[in-house]
Amino acid sequence: MISERPAQKPQVDLVALARVRVRRSWVLLLLWLLIPGGAQAQLRGHGGPVRALAISSDGTQVLSGSFDTSAIRWSISRNAAEQVMRFHENAVNAVAFLQDGRMVTAGADARIAVWSAGKSQPNAVFEGHTAPVASLAVSPDGAWLASASWDHTVRLWPLNGGTPRVLEGHSQNVNGVAFSPDGRAVISVGYDAAVRIWPVAGDGSPIVRQLPTPLNAVAVTPDGEIVVGGADGKVYFLSPEGEMRADVQASATPIIALAAAKDGALVAAAGIRGTVTVVERKTRHVQKSLVGPGLPVWSVAFFPDGRTLLTGGADRMLRRWNAISGEPVDIVLAGAPDDPLAAYAGDRGAEVYRACIACHALMPDDGNKAGPSLAGVFGRKIATQPGYRYSDALTKMDIVWTPETVAKMFEVGPATYTPGTKMPEQTIGSAEDRKALVDFIARATVTK
């Protein structure tokens, strides 16, 4: 049945509990990331765990969403962030590319934003959900956007304008949503262990299948097979009508993210303890388990070639993998073409600063990004960089930026040192790394 209904208080599920633990622990993981010789990084710029991923149809761009409340559009050819989008008041849980090149982000603030490339504010905002939005899907014809929410509903938003439809029936959090290949059905899964197959035309009741475990993610292959990730660590394979075909034990812990290759040959399942298992769909055989993709892995996506996998996790990095061999692709970002820190290769302070480069420019000509430019920052009063809109709380502070005040901020964290800031919460526990960072900023941001 399709109907409007009053908001209900969302339930707490395994993903929610893990989310709380991650928020408490990712700062500790940051310290590990600052140790030379850490894991092979791909794209680094988020200030928190990477919660969501999407890849453009031509494979040249990636969109990532994070617990740090931001989304970033990346250029794969340049290995660099091209656009940082800040709008949501809480974690960005889901992202998607539209067929016309626009982007969609959805957050724990229950809002959905539609963006154009290069714009600092969304073109449109969809409001109606009353709890976090956990998943997004775009119909094959580009006419509909589907959203799954912890308010127990799925919503269908007409992208050419009009009133959204509310799909009601789940009794607990809806964690995943996907369209059938022909676009005639939208499939949703939830913590109530239900798979619901809804007719997009609204001309009938949904098919409902109960599985033996709460469900956290769903993907659909080109031939219509439904792939579901369970809290029991299993990947379930269902027919387009929802009939059980097979299950594969992919992890000892809950599956929290799924992706199917464009050709349907491979499925990747990410577990809450950091495992990513690649399953050959035809044989239902576990082909490979990736080693070292971050703990936990919150998001996975295949590139159009069907063999290159992208992962995002609690270590704040996006990593590319050869899904066949299980090996990482392109070991490091440093020194890549157009890398603004390429001239500082081997500089410890520059490596620490790499986590800041997506939001803060170093030179005056680069202007403000998601955060204000740091050109000439030392000696400048807080919240006075021209052309940048600061939060009201910062404009009332009397802090002057010096090596000592910047180091102190990263020692105790921005939320403690500058309450009300929009800056993602992060600390640097090593005094040596804090000193290396401020020494680098002093050298790199001197204006003539």
Please give the structural blueprint.
Blueprint: H1 14-33, E1 43-44, E2 50-55, E3 61-66, E4 70-75, E5 80-86, E6 92-97, E7 103-107, E8 112-115, E9 124-126, E10 133-138, E11 144-149, E12 153-158, E13 165-168, E14 174-179, E15 185-190, E16 194-199, E17 207-210, E18 215-220, E19 226-230, E20 234-238, E21 244-249, E22 255-260, E23 266-271, E24 276-280, E25 285-290, E26 297-302, E27 308-313, E28 317-322, H2 348-353, H3 392-395, H4 403-412, H5 414-417, H6 431-444
Antiparallel strand pairs: 1-28, 2-3, 3-4, 4-5, 6-7, 7-8, 8-9, 10-11, 11-12, 12-13, 14-15, 15-16, 16-17, 18-19, 19-20, 20-21, 22-23, 23-24, 24-25, 26-27, 27-28
Helix pairs in contact: 4-6
Pfam family, one: WD40
WD repeats: 43-84, 85-125, 126-167, 167-198, 290-331
GO molecular function: electron transfer activity; heme binding; metal ion binding
Task: Describe this protein with a few key phrases.
single chain; 448 residues; 4-stranded antiparallel β-sheet; 34% strand; 6 helices; electron transport; mainly beta; 2 domains; 28 strands; Cytochrome Bc1 Complex, Chain D, domain 2; Methylamine Dehydrogenase, Chain H
Q: What fraction strand?
A: 25-35%
Total number of beta strands: 28
In the predicted model, the low-confidence regions spanning at least 5 consecutive residues are: 1-41, 331-337
The helix-and-strand class reads mainly beta
For this structure, what is the CATH homologous superfamily of the largest domain? YVTN repeat-like/Quinoprotein amine dehydrogenase
Q: What is the annotated CATH architecture of the largest domain?
A: 7 Propeller
Biggest sheet, in brief? 4 strands, antiparallel
- Kindly report the spatial arrangement of strands forming the biggest sheet: 1-28-27-26
- Report the helical percentage: 10-25%
How much is the average pLDDT? Answer: 84
Tally of structural domains? 2
> How many helices does DSSP assign?
6
End-to-end CA span: 67 Å
